[in-house]
Design a protein that fits this description.
Elements (H helix, E strand, L loop, with lengths): L3 E4 L2 E4 H65 L11 H15 L7 E6 L11 H12 L6 E6 L5 E10 L17 H7 L12 E10 H53 L14 H38 L1
Helix pairs in contact: 1-2, 1-5, 5-6
Length: 319
């Protein structure tokens, strides 16, 4: 008869109780691991996305500087005085390069780049309220070269960004942005004379900013979390199986044997004995029970002998 105990008026085996306990530990372990890992992996995903965004920023910034320092001067030498082509503008080329990158590499498809300016030549580059605050922040702290964090779009969607200041340090770059009279007629014809003038040297005029939708961060974190939780679950299951197997072999079965011998002795079968009991606490229990059984057998023998003597004495007196 297997060992049982009463729980809320119902009998339950020790094996079932241990199995339920192990399952509880399993579920609790997976849950707590999931919560802890979710936070850690989310931070790691943010770091990876930020690193990628910074790489994109560095590439575009390098392209911008190369265009501004190497190509634009040579193009201007070959252009007529009043000619203007948007392709010679570094910001125009950086946006074009990012568009090609997004088309050719799906992993960058949702990355957005903007050179947000307080007074841009192209009104599409006009800084919104959030970007104006960033530019003011860069102006207040001229040692600040990079900001990355989360913000919310006007639609309410959360988005990750990384931004750096735009500062004109070469006076040649201001030739087209001082006054409309000094700008090429082609530029005035294309963009008008109301925007992109009055720029000042060594002042933060705007910010280069890369936007990354937060669902990219969540997707990276979710994929990593599912993979790790799956591995942990398999390890837990294997550990649970081994633990239950060990418990049944070295704990449950010996206890059942002790219970069966105790049941047999309680019903008068003094020949019942233990087989292959281990040297642990259960073995000690079996040895103690064996000594108790021997003592009980001796007590019963003495009682029978005592009763036998009394019967013979009674028989002698009755003769």
């Amino acid at each position: 008869m297997p060992y049982t105990r009463i729980v809320n008026g119902k009998k339950t085996t020790l094996s079932k109780s241990l199995t339920l306990l192990m399952l509880l530990v399993f579920v609790s372990g997976i849950t707590l691991s999931g919560v802890a890992l979710s936070h850690i992996l989310n931070l790691n995903a943010q770091y990876e996305v930020a690193l990628t965004a910074n790489v994109v920023m560095d590439i575009l910034d390098s392209c911008r500087k190369y265009m501004n320092d190497e190509l634009t001067p040579k193009f201007k030498e070959r252009m007529k005085v009043d000619e203007f082509f948007p392709e010679v503008v570094p910001s125009y080329n950086t946006k074009s390069i990012l568009n090609l990158l997004r088309q050719n590499h799906p992993s960058y498809a949702e990355f957005n780049y903007k050179e947000a300016m307080l007074n841009p030549t192209n009104t599409e580059d006009k800084a919104n309220e959030f970007e104006k605050q960033l530019i003011e922040r860069f102006n207040r702290d001229r040692n600040l070269q990079l900001v990355r964090d989360f913000t919310y779009l006007p639609s309410g969607n959360k988005i990750f960004y990384t931004a750096s200041p735009i500062i004109i340090k070469d006076s040649n770059c201001l030739q087209c942005h001082s006054t409309p009279s000094k700008a090429p007629k082609g530029m005035i014809s294309l963009y008008g004379s109301n925007n992109g003038f009055g720029w000042q040297l060594n002042k933060v005029l705007g910010t280069q900013i890369v936007y990354v939708p937060t669902h990219i961060v969540r997707q990276k974190a979710s994929k990593a979390l599912l993979l790790i939780i799956g591995i942990i679950a398999l390890i837990f299951q294997a550990t649970l199986f081994v633990a239950l197997f060990w418990l049944k072999k070295y704990v449950i079965r010996p206890i059942k044997q002790v219970v069966n011998v105790a049941e047999s002795v309680s019903q008068g079968d003094m020949s019942a004995k233990f087989d292959n009991i281990s040297n642990n606490e259960i073995g000690t229990l079996a040895e103690a029970f064996t000594r108790m059984k021997i003592s009980l057998e001796m007590a019963i023998t003495r009682l029978d002998q005592y009763r036998g003597k009394n019967r013979r004495g009674d028989d002698y007196l009755n003769q």
